[in-house]
Amino acid sequence: MAASVAGLASGRQELAFGFTRVHRSSASRLVSFKPARLITACADDPSNSSTGSPKRQPEQPPLSLSLENVNPVDLGRKSRKAFDDVWQRIKDLGQFTGSSRPRDGDDNVLVGGPMCEFTIPNAEFTTLLVVGATSRVGRVLIRKLQLRGYKVKALVRNADPETLEMLPRSVQIVVGDLGEPETLKAAVEGCNKIICCAAARSYITADLYRVDNKGVQNLSTAFQDYNHRLAQTRAGRSSKSKLVVAKFSKAKEVDSWEMRRGEAFGGYDPSSKYQVNFGGTLDVDENNNADFSGFVPSRGGYVEMVKSLSFPSGFTLDRYEGLVLCVCGDGKIYSLILETSGGEYDAPRRRYYARFLTRLGYSRIRIPFTKFRPMNEEDPPLDLFLVDKLAIRFEPRKQRSSFLATGETSSFKLLVDYIKALPTGEETDFILVSCSAAGVEGQSREKLLRAKQAGEAALRNSGLGYTIIRPGPLMEEPGGQRALVFDQGNRITQGISCADVADVCVKALHDPTARNKSFDVCYEYTPEAGQGLYELVAHVPDKSNNYLTPALSVLEKNT
Question: Which of 160, 342, 484, 542: CA 20 to 30 A from 393?
Answer without folding.
Answer: 342
